[in-house]
């Protein structure tokens, strides 16, 4: 009898605990029936992606990966030099970089000095063919244009140089042009490089000067254009005639 009472009591306790647990798990009054459930039967619109949607994200604003800068020829050359010094002397990258910088600076300086040397050499070599005017400001005239720039030429200095060099024919030419310059300065002739000796001859009013000019013009044409080789005696004689004409102007 006692055993039967114990079994019934145990069954009764288990039943009560199960009911309490069910009420807790359902939250008290949280049990709903089917009528209280709302079912959404509205149409669902399917969203589709534009096939080319990626094109909108190709600008720089959407680039999140840092791309390495492509190395140019100069950068590759510097790297090759660094590797050369590193392999040759067994030095570190930092020391090889400094060695390359020093080498580049030395080579650049040598190139600049060489260019300056070429420029100075070209100027000095050409200076012997230039003519300087008498004015305080130096003006340079090439031999090809000397007849068009008589007023800028220091013929006295030029003649001394040609006599020293032994170029007698060129000395006679400069004497003749000096005479034309002197007569132009004295307004005896109207200088124009397109005029001939005959044109100047008729412009001279002084008869004595006209005769002297006619003679030196003959010497000039014969010696310069005729490419006549002058010995010392012939040169001194012609030189004397030109100097006398210069003094008479």
From TrEMBL:
The chain crosses the membrane at residues 102-124. It comes from the Bacteria. The keyword Transmembrane applies. Keywords: Membrane, Transmembrane, Transmembrane helix. This is DUF4129 domain-containing protein. It comes from Flavobacterium cheonanense.
